[in-house]
From TrEMBL, chain A:
Its EC number is 4.7.1.1. The keyword Phosphoprotein does not apply. Belongs to the PhnJ family. Keywords: 4Fe-4S, Iron, Iron-sulfur, Lyase, Metal-binding, S-adenosyl-L-methionine. It comes from Ruegeria meonggei. GO terms for biological process: organic phosphonate catabolic process. It comes from the Bacteria. One of its GO terms (molecular function) is alpha-D-ribose 1-methylphosphonate 5-phosphate C-P-lyase activity. Catalyzes the breakage of the C-P bond in alpha-D-ribose 1-methylphosphonate 5-phosphate (PRPn) forming alpha-D-ribose. This is Alpha-D-ribose 1-methylphosphonate 5-phosphate C-P lyase. It catalyses: alpha-D-ribose 1-methylphosphonate 5-phosphate + AH2 + S-adenosyl-L-methionine = alpha-D-ribose 1,2-cyclic phosphate 5-phosphate + methane + 5'-deoxyadenosine + L-methionine + A + H(+).
Automatic annotation (TrEMBL), chain B:
InterPro entries: PhnI (IPR008773). This is Alpha-D-ribose 1-methylphosphonate 5-triphosphate synthase subunit PhnI. Its EC number is 2.7.8.37. One of its GO terms (molecular function) is alpha-D-ribose 1-methylphosphonate 5-triphosphate synthase activity. GO terms for biological process: organic phosphonate metabolic process. Keywords: Transferase.
Amino acid sequence: MNEYNFAYLDEQTKRMIRRAILKGLAVPGYQVPFASREMPMPYGWGTGGVQVSAATLTPDDTFKVIDQGADDTTNAVSIRKFFENTAGVETTEETEKATVIQTRHRIPEVKLREDQIIVYQVPIPEPLRFLEPRETETRKMHSLEEYGLMHVKLYEDISQHGAISTAYAYPVKVSGRYVMDPSPIPKFDNPKLEMDAIQLFGAGREQRIYAVPPHTQVVSLDFEDYPFEATKADHPCDLCGAEDSYLDEVIMDDAGNRMFVCSDTDYCRSRRAAGHLGRLAEEDAA
Amino acid sequence: MYVAVKGGEKAIDNAHAWLAEERRGSTDVAELSIAQIREQLSLAVNRVMAEGSLFDPDLAALAIKQARGDLIEAIFLIRAYRTTLPRFGSSNPVKTSEMTCDRRISATFKDAPGGQVLGPTFDYTHRLLDFKLAAEGELPAAPKAHPREEVTPHITEFLQGEGIIQDEPPCDDIPGDLTREPMEFPAGRPLRLQSLTRGDEGFVLGMAYSTQRGYARNHAFVGELRIGKVAVEMDIPELGFAIEIGEVELTECETVNQFKGSKTEPPQFTRGYGLVFGQSERKSIAMALVDRALRWEELGEDNLGAPAQDEEFVLSHADNIQATGFLEHIKLPHYVDFQSELELVRKLRREAEERITPKEAAE
């Protein structure tokens, strides 16, 4: 694919995206409109993340792509291949070796460093969208810092269900100002949003980029008497025994037996390589 | 025993190989050529060019072949290709009044300068399957006439002369470009028209139909529908004047709509406008109706709360490439979100049961 520019997009487009990224970093949590391009993969399949990655990557970078925490899910494979072909950058599955990580729905378990950038794929960047469908209204609400509707929603959840019934894409307030959608990560990952790495969020179809700079305060919305709680399945990983990682539930047989495994495949692999074994680890020796 | 879902890369390659085979179909049947698609499925080619926003019949035909006839997939291929093209500049506005018309009809005047020219239309064909087409054979040649040499004036010009139709003053502002700037609302008419002309034919048709059925009704007459070729001219700075760089086939529809007047405007006829690449009649008429419905504010009409009056609603949902991508993305894995929902629902059920069942009676 030598006929395409480095990382597919032309330099003008990358410059336009970088401007949006810089603006996003300058105003943490603010959704910056950008002229999203039509990419050779469908809208809703990571076009925002791909454009942000394309504008971020340099030839010296090492790139990692995960979807649902895993490097080998089909769309992660497809995006990794896209950049192997169009940018020729080195790719890796090891979180620690990557300089740019594009992710869908997860934050890696390993703490990210200052010299790393994580790029989130975002389907609906507007945290208020399901409370108010109009962009003209939600932009006004953000500019007036009018988040009462969101608190009412959370309150109604508690009064109806006894708990805040949002399990993923749990809204956060960034740097005491903007309410932000952290993309559909499980709320288990929310505490990790305060990190050392740069976090960039790209929503291609909705034409928005936003960012959280390193060491920025990110607070999950809650109430004093109903504090935010990061939850996961109450099991250790059946392969590596990890007690601290987010787990996927896998149905194993017709009787409906379940096992729980790390959703972060690289974390699980490196733990097993270091000799940590879970309940069903021997059977997985193959 | 647990087998991790590995081998995504291999599976993808194999799926694509199978897809290629399915696309070709049985090799006992001759392969379609691009020229055959371009010449014999020209209305499909036109739709792909219109919604792909790229006038190139050969590329559109190739896209249709590659997409196995799935026109939205073909439009997607064209869009993705289009974004990689460098932009040399922009043409001057095309002069549809100088169109060489293959077809030109008016529903508002029985006759007018330029006449009624039916052209190659399905109208008045009886929709009976023609089994002769199942057997291959030569067609008798269609009768020919001398083409009209003079320009064919727009019908609305005659109404305008009488001052009975809303004036459309010329404007030299450079319109925005929805492919280069993020859409913001209110978008304004130039961006609305851009969005509608590349919008999904089915969506625009449905929106237009809803206005006919009473959701912001603005009874429309087809003042004029014309199809033909227009020259595309561009100013070349080195030359200091415009030269013709090619020609495109267009369908243009101008509707004449009833209007009783409002607080700000006297009673007069109003207009809706549709302009689409290729021979795309249904789309251009639908576009004109939706355009007219979206103009309620500038004409001082009431907002009736109808979907077709709602610019943000129409423009946000007209694009089939955006729509299909987002719709189909729910096929992608969502294990992580689903897992978090599972945990939550289990927790809520547990708590609800504990509330209902007194502790000592619990099993």
